[in-house]
Amino acid sequence: MSKTKKEIIEWLTSLVIGIVVVLFVRSFLATNYEIVGESMMPTLHDHNHVLISKVSKIKRMDVIIFHSDEKEDYVKRVIGLPGDTITYENDQLFINNNKVDEPFLSSYEAYINTETNFTGDFNLLELTGSKTVPPGKLFVLGDNRISSLDSRYFHFIDQKEVIGELKLIYWPISDFKVNFRSE
């Protein structure tokens, strides 16, 4: 076999292996998304490009992407895990009767009218008819509480619908960020 033919075969083999690796990673380990909408501001902005881990164990306060229906995916923050009780009183989150700080909201709360609540008071029983987050379900909220369709409206999401956890914003470069849990 000629040297040129051998080089072409090596290049094609490398290309095929590269494509298989990329497809494996995208199918099973990680994928990218473009954020559409403002429901997660100030954490995420419209048209941010993000990397999602498909293998992360989902924890409270993780930012996740999930299938909302057959045509659309949503990005929200996990507030409640199975078995949790959730209450909001005077813009303060309580999970299992423990006060929980949400520092990722502070930059947005500064812009709202102090006479109204940013999140609005509720408890799970009033909102969903359930005292706790059911097994296999999650309770999620958008960081932009004023303009987010989230579990306050569509109640719980099925854990099986979770695509993955947001790991980083990579575009635009000016928004590059890695940590989304304790901002």
Question: What report would you give on this structure?
Answer:
By secondary structure, the protein is of the alpha+beta class. It has a single domain (31-175), classed as Umud Fragment, subunit A. It has 4 helices and 11 strands. It has helices spanning 3-29, 106-109, 124-128, 151-154, and strands spanning 30-34, 49-53, 63-67, 73-80, 86-89, 92-95, 98-100, 122-123, 137-141, 157-158, 162-171. The strands form 2 sheets. A 7-stranded antiparallel β-sheet has the order 1-2-11-3-4-9-10. A 4-stranded antiparallel β-sheet has the order 7-6-5-8. A hairpin with a 2-residue loop joins β6 and β7. The longest helix has 27 residues, at 3-29. The model has no long low-confidence stretch (mean pLDDT 85).
Taking pLDDT < 50 over at least 5 consecutive residues as the criterion, the unreliable ranges are: none
Q: Characterize the largest beta sheet: strand count, sense, and whether it forms a barrel.
A: 7 strands, antiparallel
Distance between the termini: 60 Å
The name of the CATH architecture is Ribbon
Strand neighbour order, sheet with most strands: 1-2-11-3-4-9-10
CATH class: Mainly Beta
SSE succession? HEEEEEEEHEHEHEE
What fraction of residues sit in β-strands?
A: 25-35%
CATH topology: Umud Fragment, subunit A
Q: Which radius of gyration do the C-alpha atoms yield?
A: 21 Å
Strand tally: 11
Task: Output the number of helix runs.
Answer: 4
Shape: elongated
Mean residue pLDDT: 85
- Approximately how much helix is present in the residues? 10-25%
The tally of domains stands at 1
